[in-house]
Amino acid sequence: MWGHCERFASSNRVLRTAASINKKTKASWSLAPYSTGSSSLRALPEKSPIRFWPGSASESQQLPPTSSTSTSASDRIKKCGVHPCTWAHPPKNVLIVQKKGDRRVTHSVRDIILHMQSRYPKINIIVEYHVWELLGTQFPSLVPFQESEQSLLSRKIDFVITVGGDGSILHVSSLFDQHPVPPVLSFSMGTLGFLLPYEISSFQDAIADVIHSRFFLQLRMRMCMTLWGEKPDHCLWLPGEQRCRELHFMNEVVLHRGREPHMTTLDAFVNGEHLTRTVADGLIVSTPTGSTAYSLSAGGPIVHPSVSTMLMTPISPRSLSFRTILLPGNAQVQLFVSPSSRSPAEVHVDGRTVFTLSPKESVQVNMSQYPLPCVSFTPEINTERRSGLGSTATKGDIIYDDWVHDINTRLQFNASFHPRGGFGAKGHAEDTYFQNIRETLQKNQSRRG
């Protein structure tokens, strides 16, 4: 159903085919009948399903799946590429998530709200309570939600707009814990912005394309974890909760010795088989998206987000031979605090401390059945909205693979030291060289197409 992962040239053909599909299926509906004008999240209409094409228009499916009878999590995640989408019905509700404590971000969110209320007055705008406290007086029609209403978000929200840094995406993931995540359109106003590709100046056109089904989805794998006690059937409760449950996350789960002076001893099991016992500061189990976060700082590899895999990376191990291991995306990983460990292990999920494990207690990690769908566009449009070049972008500027571009420009992948002086002529020659390569690749691609 999903179609196999394709190489560079084939992926671009899929994008072009998808673009034509979206043009043919351009929405012709009116937004007016779907607004309730309610100030309560519970009273808002249900979200609209999304139809997407993994390979062709004849293979339409809904995303995300909501039942156990849907395609398996590994099948959903392991298929690479972007997927063209259309709304089954007009979107009714949008959630805006912003970085806290940043006046520039708040000002930009205010501009987005003004634009949407003017251009799309029948779409309900939902915000977190702290945003409503800042902007509720100016925009009385905003719909705030409390933490107690968080479980309603997956039923109500059609798509999410984030403004801020990479932490905004992680926060969205936590808001839809244990539930399908709606499409996420991200604008970068943070420090790095590795997960938020678009400049805030492009928000009007980007929002219009999402509302009118002119967009694609890149599925980013999430994982889930469960805490277990010493007895096999003893599931541990998260702090402040009165039940055992999974916790879904986007980047990584970390077992770390915390403030303890001694290294912790951990036993790692994969699919029920003992893999290793390590004495270390800790262990990281991360997604491909998380491979550029804590795992990278601990010496782990950089992994493309379309790869279905789980990374296990040690933190300062007392061994020279323990290197990062890449496991199948559908593997089950269980990390125990060894009975011989001289210290407990703190459990951190996407940077948040959630628990402290004592000896013989463990954390079980699996792939989540609910990926995080990130909004994307055609390479030409992506380039305009990422770089700020707008209509002045040329063929040489077009970014065909966002991830490859970002690890070079944002992470400075394999950047070497340059000698002083002599940059001008050499830099111009290299620009010409790369421009010629791009033109050759485009010609080869058109022949294959």
From TrEMBL:
<dbReference type="GO" id="GO:0019674">
    <property type="term" value="P:NAD+ metabolic process"/>
</dbReference>
<keyword id="KW-0547">Nucleotide-binding</keyword>
<keyword id="KW-0808">Transferase</keyword>
<dbReference type="InterPro" id="IPR002504">
    <property type="entry name" value="NADK"/>
</dbReference>
<dbReference type="InterPro" id="IPR017437">
    <property type="entry name" value="ATP-NAD_kinase_PpnK-typ_C"/>
</dbReference>
<feature type="region of interest" description="Disordered">
    <location>
        <begin position="54"/>
        <end position="75"/>
    </location>
</feature>
<dbReference type="GO" id="GO:0005524">
    <property type="term" value="F:ATP binding"/>
</dbReference>
<keyword id="KW-0067">ATP-binding</keyword>
<keyword id="KW-0418">Kinase</keyword>
<dbReference type="InterPro" id="IPR017438">
    <property type="entry name" value="ATP-NAD_kinase_N"/>
</dbReference>
<dbReference type="InterPro" id="IPR016064">
    <property type="entry name" value="NAD/diacylglycerol_kinase_sf"/>
</dbReference>
<dbReference type="Pfam" id="PF01513">
    <property type="entry name" value="NAD_kinase"/>
</dbReference>
<dbReference type="GO" id="GO:0006741">
    <property type="term" value="P:NADP+ biosynthetic process"/>
</dbReference>
<comment type="similarity">
    <text>Belongs to the NAD kinase family.</text>
</comment>
<dbReference type="GO" id="GO:0003951">
    <property type="term" value="F:NAD+ kinase activity"/>
</dbReference>
<dbReference type="Pfam" id="PF20143">
    <property type="entry name" value="NAD_kinase_C"/>
</dbReference>
<keyword id="KW-0520">NAD</keyword>
<protein>
    <submittedName>
        <fullName>Similar to S.cerevisiae protein POS5 (Mitochondrial NADH kinase)</fullName>
    </submittedName>
</protein>
<keyword id="KW-0521">NADP</keyword>
